[in-house]
Write a structure and sequence with these properties.
heterodimer; A: 457 residues; alpha/beta; UDP-N-acetylmuramoyl-L-alanine:D-glutamate ligase; Protein-Tyrosine Phosphatase, Chain A; 2 domains; 6-stranded mixed sheet; 31% helix; B: 240 residues; Rossmann fold; 9-stranded mixed sheet; 4-stranded mixed sheet; 30% strand; globular
Chain lengths: 457, 240
């Protein structure tokens, strides 16, 4: 009976997907929703491809997924089934599987690749048991969605299949403990870079005490937040040794040197912020562990570019403009962008449109997360102006004042698209716009005004 | 006036939802005060000394057990400070640490300090997030919550803190949120509670300092507060 339900849900979901395509409607989750209603244990009936890979974690999973899938596609996995353009929860993954499978639930492809929301592990991993699971990191995220790292760690750890090879971040003392003795584990890590300015002044550090004995950990390096190297002075608990260890970055040639099995491997970095380096390390470690050679991975990475919707830079007149996604309600990701801003050279102005688009419509956004975000990084004299747009701009004004930023530098407007009119181009030569993922429409309106606002400068 | 001393308990682990914003704001309001941060593995300053305010913020469920263990040797001292009227502020689930116990849905019961008459029920499979609009001392209170647990009053002499006007109260049977005993204030509202509630903060600082204290960035904070209250009152705003 259940098998019949499965066949019926495959037909219904494929029909729904086709209808939506005919209507030019985007439906990343809908076919999966239909399928899961008709057959709740749908995921267990697919005859999965030979190699199944999942990428999860708090930050970087989309980039690592896209980068890794791209490397694999260029190297013997041309028809990989993936949710690159779909949702990363059970309904999104069900959609991808339903729309790509044959009627009997099997696939033409020999491989499948999924980005998996870390909270969705209980709905996915009991049915789909990946051969490889990458966890980029576990960090504080939206309190509404993710509560805290202990909670997410326990959810994820309870459902990791024993057969999965785990690709873990050795510099993350939380996620590096995922899995059991039965899991094969491969670690990636990053040494202190010669030109790196360690970031040990963040508000958030999600692990301060030893998870084994409770003593305070001694950190010798913090790349950002708790990502770094530490040791417990009482019991010796420390980071696992990385199998793929980033040892150097040449920013001129965009080259990352990775030490693996005592030999040096060089990879191209599409971007060189610390989080970008970790993303490349995760993708390299995964694809090398799957079996690709150093030259195959390196050659594919040479052609990889960061998606412009996440990071872009260009010049208008004499002003450099940088646009960066900052993920509202995610204090670690947003702090990373603030850290990037403080280390950028030039006299800077910042436009911030970080409010949650949906919360602004349906409720009133909980801005507690802004008090965990390192806006203190923006108080340098090299930042002339901070312009905040959105309904909650007065809350941001208070937060920035508490961060120690002079009131004369802060400008507020309720309408996000009015931010450009508040800029004083004579005060800066670099404009950095940071935005939340769902504020792209406002961002586009802001971008369209930049030419006339900055060209005279 | 004697120097004001504020003790922040375990800020390295009790700052889960931006609660440290309260302390950073107090530092701006009380620039001459001494702020003492006591780590989880340290000896609380209040154990041997007088303090004007003790603050503790939200924490993980595991940390709740650690905090109970660390504070248990000082239970009598804490009871004496509460009885003497020392101001306390506990935000988020820090409130539960001072209660009688926490019953987890797994069947485990964690005995807490037993200083206030509440008992909490925790269910890690069901989390509640929401907003709250309430009233205390004729001033409106706004706040955010995100919690796995619900507290019930188990003593008849437990005094409510905030009367709820919109949003979920502390549990289904009451119309209030949080508890107050003398100058101990505990609430599930988390994050920068003192920043978003300037009129409560004025009241609270008077308890701490013994006289009126001007708020830092007072006009900006009150403007943001008024905007938020207007927002919370919109009928279409889903608050829970």
């Amino acid at each position: 009976m259940s098998k019949l339900k499965f066949y019926f849900s495959v037909i219904a979901a494929k029909t729904a997907a086709k209808l939506l395509r005919l209507l030019h409607m985007n439906a990343t989750n809908f076919p999966g929703q239909v399928g899961l209603v008709l057959c709740p244990n749908l995921l267990s009936y697919f005859k999965m491809p030979q190699t199944v890979i999942a990428v999860t974690g708090t930050n970087g999973k989309t980039t690592v997924s896209n980068m890794s899938a791209d490397i694999l596609r260029k190297n013997g996995f041309p028809d990989i089934v993936s949710n690159s353009y779909g949702g990363n929860v059970d309904t999104g993954i069900a959609s991808v599987l339903l729309t790509n499978c044959r009627l009997d639930g099997s696939f033409n492809s020999n491989s499948a690749f999924f980005e998996v929301d870390e909270r969705s592990a209980p709905h996915i991993f009991p049915f789909i048991k990946p051969d490889y699971i990458v966890c980029t990191n576990l960090q504080r995220d939206s309190m509404k969605r993710n509560a805290h790292t202990d909670f997410i760690f326990n959810i994820l750890n309870s459902y990791i299949p024993e057969k999965s090879t785990l690709i873990l971040n050795s510099d993350d003392l939380i996620s590096s403990r995922l899995g059991s003795d039965k899991n094969k584990k491969v670690f990636f890590g990053l040494e202190k870079l010669p030109d790196e300015i360690p970031s040990d002044d963040s508000i958030i550090c999600d692990i301060v005490n030893c998870p084994i004995c409770g003593s305070a950990l001694n950190f010798s390096l913090k790349h950002y937040n708790h990502i770094g190297r530490a040791v417990c002075p009482s019991c010796g608990f420390t980071n696992p040794k990385p199998n793929f260890d980033g040892v150097n970055v040449d920013r001129e040639s965009h080259a990352l040197t990775v030490l693996h099995d005592d030999s040096k491997e060089i990879y191209t970095l599409p971007a060189d912020r610390i989080t970008d380096i970790y993303n490349v390390l995760a993708a390299v470690t995964l694809t090398r562990t799957v079996g690709l050679s150093q030259s195959q991975v390196s050659s594919a990475l040479n052609q990889t570019k960061i998606v412009k919707s996440r990071f872009d830079s260009f010049k208008i007149g004499s002003t450099d403009v940088i646009i960066s996604l900052a993920k509202g309600q995610n204090p670690v990701a947003c702090s990373g962008v603030c850290n990037f801003i403080r280390h950028e050279n030039g006299q800077k102005a910042v436009i911030m449109i970080l409010e949650d688009f949906y919360d602004a419509k349906r409720t009133s956004e909980n801005l507690a997360w802004t008090y965990e975000t390192d806006f203190e990084f923006l108080k340098g004299d090299d930042i002339s102006q901070i312009v905040v747009g959105g309904k909650r701009c007065y809350d941001y004004l208070v937060r920035l004042l508490i961060a120690g930023i002079d009131k004369s530098k802060i400008f507020c407007c309720v309408n996000e698209t009015d931010t450009v009119s508040l800029l004083k181009p004579q005060l800066f030569n670099k404009l950095i716009i940071i935005y939340d993922l769902f504020n792209v429409k406002s961002l586009d309106a802001i971008k369209s005004q930049l030419g006339s606002a900055l060209e005279r400068n | 006036m004697n120097k004001i001393i504020v003790e922040i308990l375990f800020p390295e682990v009790c700052n889960l939802f931006g609660d440290i914003g309260n302390i950073n704001y107090l530092k701006k309001c009380l620039p001459d005060a001494t702020f003492i941060s006591t780590p989880l593995n340290g000896v609380p300053f209040f154990a041997q000394n007088s303090v004007n305010l003790i603050y503790i913020g939200a924490m993980t469920e595991k940390t709740q057990s650690d905090v109970v263990k660390r504070l248990s040797p000082y239970k009598q001292r804490l009871a004496q400070l509460i009885a003497d009227g020392t101001p306390f502020l506990a935000t988020g689930n820090a409130l539960e640490v001072f209660g009688k116990n926490i019953s987890d849905s797994s069947g485990e019961t964690i005995n807490c300090l037993g200083l206030i008459g509440i008992s909490a029920k925790r269910d890690l499979l069901h989390r509640f997030s929401g907003l709250l609009l309430g009233e205390f001392n004729d001033s409106e209170i706004v706040g955010f919550r995100a919690q796995f647990s619900v507290a019930y009053s188990v003593d008849s002499d437990t005094t409510p803190f905030i009367t709820v006007k919109k949003g979920k109260p502390m549990n289904h049977d009451v119309n209030y949120e949080g508890v107050r005993i003398n100058n101990f204030f505990g609430t599930y509202l988390l994050g920068p509670f003192l920043v978003v509630n300037p009129f409560f903060t004025k009241f609270f600082l008077k308890l701490v300092c013994g006289s009126d204290v001007p708020l830092a960035f007072e006009s900006e904070v009150i403007h943001a507060y008024n905007e938020r209250i207007t927002d919370f009152k919109r009928p279409q705003v889903k608050i829970k």
